[in-house]
Amino acid sequence: MAIKFEVIKECGKTKARLGKLFTSHGVIETPVFMPVGTQATVKAMTSRELDDLGIHIILSNSYHLYLRPGHNLIAQVGGLHKFMGWKGAILTDSGGFQIFSLGKLNKIRDEGVFFNSHIDGSKHFISPEKAMEIQIALGSDIAMVFDECTSYPAGKYQIETAAQRTIQWAKRCKEVHHEPNQSLFGIVQGGAFKDLRIENANKLVELDFPGYAIGGLSVGEPKSLMYEILDYTVPCLPNNKPRYLMGVGAPQSILEGVVRGVDMFDCVLPTRNARNGSLFISSGKLSILNAKYKDDFTPLDNECQCYTCQNFTRAYLRHLYMSKEILASILGTIHNLYFMSTLMKNTRLALLEDRLLEFKEEFLAKFLS
Amino acid sequence: MAIKFEVIKECGKTKARLGKLFTSHGVIETPVFMPVGTQATVKAMTSRELDDLGIHIILSNSYHLYLRPGHNLIAQVGGLHKFMGWKGAILTDSGGFQIFSLGKLNKIRDEGVFFNSHIDGSKHFISPEKAMEIQIALGSDIAMVFDECTSYPAGKYQIETAAQRTIQWAKRCKEVHHEPNQSLFGIVQGGAFKDLRIENANKLVELDFPGYAIGGLSVGEPKSLMYEILDYTVPCLPNNKPRYLMGVGAPQSILEGVVRGVDMFDCVLPTRNARNGSLFISSGKLSILNAKYKDDFTPLDNECQCYTCQNFTRAYLRHLYMSKEILASILGTIHNLYFMSTLMKNTRLALLEDRLLEFKEEFLAKFLS
Question: Contact A85/B327, CB-based, under 8 Å?
């Protein structure tokens, strides 16, 4: 089935909303954070570990799966859910962002993008139509239109061209996308230009997508600018559709997004940080490699109920990271994803209990201390 | 408490026995295979994963833990069990083997071994007394005497010197080991020389250890020679004490050891192979990187009940290995350790039901086909 979205409650003091996203693979409570499973696996996690962490939706990358193992191979076994043994929901991005950030020698044309694989240099061409073919083959619950993502800073002419092309491409995606079990989201571009963002959002909304993403953010601009862009972009999007802020995952940015009316977030941050030994705790980030944790026999975070904190000490975790043990990445990822899950759960609870701003203030006072 | 060992049943047709090893950290049914947790972690496994796999005893390495994070640090938190969050039993080796295989610029003297760390080149000295200090600090259930392990092939004079030194070191270990909660095992050396092995075993037995290991095997000699050495060495060891064949882990060698009266085995093979994509299945070893598995949507092993085989296909596993994903190592290790657990469980069951030789023949006919 196509997704359905229901706003359960609106915050009286902010633009935040509590929602439910119904998919063929379960109901997702929003605001939600989606961990990233780039290559058909959330790095270092088994599916049952993700279940234990209360994760019901993940993001996976069309660009990576198109290159390896190939979307047709995944289609052969019945789609990405079956291929990776994941029973929850999946959102796939269109590959646009990865082509621009990972692909080599990109040539962007109106018909699509020519690029060389970051794995073996082989030549490829992805058009909006091809991006739809790939995502339909993957069988994700939510697919994204093929967009042109620009970097920051960039000139207005360049941003405008990309934003207009993104609208043209969104139309072409919609024209060829007739998969009843997959919902196609549009992506608002327009850089840091208010007029472009608003124009872009309005044009996209005319196309009537079941959900809308805000793209081209968290690409190097100051956080305050990102919040400002959200301030004027989100109100252009329909109230009854889910809103997704792409690539945003810092706890503070998520909360700032929530109060501006965003429902969905994704980022490699918690999983990538975990592998590098940067762990979220209630008082901020902890670099476990720091020598001061050598003989610290307390848990990472005394307040945390995750498997890692309930069973292991900072001294042991540091030893694992120093020794480059795989278990370091496993335990770190469990912790960081649990932290994100808990943050979102507490955010939803605060929304339900009409104390979102207080919760946000308390959380940030501690986290950014 | 010190360990206790009970022979439950002897095989009528071979020297195999079914036993129980009682430790402060649970009862272990023998014959048993002990996975290796070199650096205070069985690579890629959480403790709860090991529990799920029915693993009740692991081996850890004094040499590695002495160098990093240091045995005194581990003692501070109450020992290795607490440090690594492992509730099962632990056997620690003495470091002898690693010093000879990993340490640089070794100088072996009667008083002990001078060597340089393989991590940072720093200089160290380990004597039999130091090896006891380290293992007592680690608090393992079973400690091993400090031995001199020779390579294969080696001349008789060299082997004899090492074997005699191993006896002298075993005496010194015993003299300083007064830890009631840890049981110290002796190690028989003597290379491939029957007279040296027998003399060495007899002298060691005079010292009266609660268990005996056969060391210096699986170091490059042909398998047939290893079996021959077991044929004449095992009968020198007392019937009522556990017998441990160090560093042996190939399924066929384990079965050959079992019928020769060995109770305990350890090896990095199943875990190291798993990380390299070499997976045990009932019909032998499977190299998952082989291109023929690219679109093979069957489980690794149809007969296997492990998490990996119950949930994932060869095509997905190959994709994970090709993409160098951490999950490849996790799922491969779960499978290989489950394979070993099941092999040992089936071996014990066959022993109990008086059909060990038939089981061995059937298993090997398939596994070595």
Answer: no
Beta bridge pairs of residue B60: B92
Residue B45 touches chain A, beta carbons under 8 Å: yes
Q: Are strands A89-93 and A57-61 parallel, antiparallel or unpaired?
A: parallel
What is the rounded CA–CA span in Å between residue A211 and residue A242?
A: 5
Polymer length in residues for chain A: 369
CA-to-CA dists, residue A111 to A143, A165, A368, angstroms: 20, 10, 45
Q: Give the bridge partners for A114, in sequence order.
A: A107, A125
Chain A neighbours among B 288-327 (CB < 8 Å)?
294-295, 297, 307, 311-313, 315-316, 318-320, 322-323, 325-327
**Confidence band, pLDDT 50/70/90 cuts, at residue A245:** very high
Beta carbons of B330 and A326 less than 8 Å apart:
yes
Identity of the residue numbered A197: R
Q: Which of B67, B272, B300, B323 to mutate to test the interface with A (most CBs of A within 10 A)?
A: B323
Segment A2-52, tens digit of pLDDT: 999 999 999 999 999 999 999 999 999 999 999 999 999 999 999 999 999
The answer on pLDDT for A99 being more than 90 is: no
- The closest alpha carbon to B281, from B254, B264, B312, B303, belongs to B303
CB B315 within 8 A of CB B290: no
Q: CB contact, 8 Å: B127 with chain A?
A: no
Quick one: CA dihedral A138, A141, A145, A146, positive or negative? negative
Beta carbons of A180 and A141 less than 8 angstroms apart: no
Which of A147, A263, A266, A301 is catalytic? The answer is: A266
Q: Does B250 touch chain A (CB under 8 A)?
A: no
**pTM for this structure?**
0.98
Buried b (16+ CB within 10 A) or exposed e, A208-241: ebbbbbbbbbbbebeeeebeebbeebbebbeeeb
Q: What DSSP string runs through B173-242? A: HHHH---TT-EEEEEE--TT-HHHHHHHHHHHHHT--S-EEE-S-SSSS-HHHHHHHHHHHGGGS-TTS-
- End-to-end alpha carbon distance in chain B: 45
Q: Which residues of chain A have a CB within 8 Å of the CB of B320?
A: 39-41
pLDDT tens digits along B95-114: 888 888 887 778 999 999 99
**Alpha-carbon Rg for chain B in angstroms:** 20
What's the CA dihedral at B300, B305, B310, B314 to 10 degrees?
0
Closest CA to A90 of A45, A138, A132: A138
Strand pairing report for B264-267 and B243-245: parallel
Q: Is the N-terminal amide bond of A69 cis, ω within 30° of 0? A: yes
Token pair, residue B250, equals: 């190939």
Q: What is the pLDDT of residues A186-239, one digit of tens each?
A: 999 999 999 999 999 999 999 999 999 999 999 999 999 999 999 999 999 999
Of all residues in chain B, the one with the smallest CA distance to A333 is B326
Residue B283: how many other CB atoms lie within 10 Å: 12
CB within 8 Å: A40 and B319: yes
